[in-house]
Amino acid sequence: MKKVYIKTYGCQMNVYDSERILEALDKEGFTETKDSDESDLVIFNTCHIREKAAEKLYSDIGRLKKQNNTKKIVVAGCVAQAEDSEIIRRMPDVDMVIGPQTYHKLPGLVSKLDKKKKIIETDFPIENKFNLLARRKRLEKKPTAFLTIQEGCDKFCTFCVVPYTRGAEYSRTTAELIEEAKSLVDQGVVELTLLGQNVNAYHGESLTNSTSNLARLIYELSKISGIKRLRYTTNHPNDVNDELICAHRDIEKLMPYMHLPIQSGSNKILKSMNRKHNVEKYIDIIDKIRSAKKGIAISSDFIVGFPGESDKDFEDTLDLVKKIKFAQAFSFNYSPRPGTPSADYEVQIPQATKSERLNQLQGLLKEQQFQFNNQFIGKTVKILIEKVGKEGCQLVGRTPHLQSVFFEDIRKVYKIGEFADIKINSVKVNNLSGELIENS
Ligand code: SAH
Ligand code: SF4
Ligand code: F3S
Questions:
Q1: Which one of 332, 348, 351, 355 would you pick to mutate in the ligand 1 pocket, going by the greatest count of ligand atoms within 8 A of its CB?
Q2: Which fold has domain 129-374?
Q3: What does the alpha-carbon distance between residue 45 and residue 356 come to, in Å, rounded to a whole number?
């Protein structure tokens, strides 16, 4: 048996891709190892979104000891797409560079790696990789799964590499997604998270050969009885339509959570980011969705220190956060990415200012996350048990609002993949804990 070690960086779409790469390699006789030293094949499935993410790859490759000549090193993912042959120039130990749209070829190419020749596969192929990959055969039995429904992006925000690394927007057909969802359900999945860089721009072919949208796809998937919970991420404000908002009101299996990145609370900055929406539009969407689904958790992404961001612009971001009250959010220092327009904008913000602003924003967001969690004290929530905790008979699950919950199952009656009712008795910023309510 040959052994493969894979390290995944970046977003959930990369997590999905890594899972499929491992499934495909399993058919070729590779088993996964968590120890890179004992592997025959090392794959880095990379992310190019911020400078730190990309630089991490080079330090990881450097640290990897190529103890013998037979160990092969593959760089896959978004850095592979963006930096191409430059990777092999910088790191001559790398044997193959393969982009996110060509990884279905990886297993076939690995067998050719014995030769001295390096392989570079970064074209955007005409064929659809999803149709060329084998049927799903999960190697790890888990109750939750990601399902990529849409890839790429046509929006070209001025800071972002995704349109270049993942290519143009592409949506899979509803029929193909139903088939994959059913096969995941057959393997024990009860919760599906639909993925896309612009998931709500989904426009795949419907079952009646017309153009579908995300709300209709969710409706079709909700008919699969084995699926108990549906989620989706990540959205663009301009692609939120009334149907999606109504789906939150009408489809019980659709969880009360929406990740809706805004990036900045300043219209001037949003314009310079080419976001094509303003703060007022964002607030309007949130108002609508909150009236359709009371208590829904709203999360977001923020970039601080975008070129030209003044103290006033940053204050506007803080004001927006105070107004919306997020359940959770991700925030980042602006990172100038080669080849993106904003990397060449004149007024770049000093690192120290960025870090100071990020600290302030993160402090506020943490406070809001705690407040969101705090409203659950004394309430009973239904959680899907996802894993065993570190202590004794502790189990960990997720609420409909995506919070992690710890509880003790002293009688050891619950299993991973089951639902349990938990009465919340304490909360932190990142998780809740409570006690089991035994119904029977
Ligand atoms: N499609 C999603 C975001 C995908 S990238 C959207 O439209 O919002 C995930 C997040 O990374 C972005 O929301 C943004 O907050 C962050 N990001 C992207 N490029 C960045 C950059 N150059 N510097 C810092 N953060 C960045
Ligand atoms: Fe990047 Fe999202 Fe903008 Fe597309 S919409 S360019 S993925 S930030
Ligand atoms: Fe990173 Fe590529 Fe995802 S750049 S965030 S891995 S789409």
A1: 332
A2: pyruvate-formate lyase- activating enzyme (3.80.30)
A3: 31
